[in-house]
Amino acid sequence: MAKSHRGICNIALGDTLEQLLQEFIVRFNDVQKVDNDSTFKREVAHIIEMIESPKFVKKHDFALDINGTLFQKKVWTVLCEVPCGETISYEALAQHIGMPNALRAVANACARNELALLIPCHRVVRKDGFISGYRWGTWRKKILLQREQKDKI
Where does the record place the Methylated-DNA-[protein]-cysteine S-methyltransferase DNA binding domain (predicted)? Predict the structure, then answer.
């Protein structure tokens, strides 16, 4: 997780801490590892809980530093309304934002999401229910969706 002075600006999923740190070093100019910040630790714990027990995690109140176009932010706002344990198709998402022919643009907005889990782009699937494209690997997307379904009450 990366944080600016305005809020959380990046949540990446990876295999090792070293890999993620290297990605952050490449992505951001001034990366500093934080060990003694209680707010940061609470935010990281919340993210981990979203992975391990997604259905039982309360909605976050974290400050976010979201960078994107107006269109991307519109897509991401709708994504945040998709409940845990449910999915939405790219087509339905495009219709929901009033642009039914913007499937490719919606998919691209999902791909540009830098806040894994907080903006739940993993909940977007193809119209036929097939799990496709995910910035952090379709296998991770499948696991996240399975965990959300498992915890569905």
Answer: 71-149
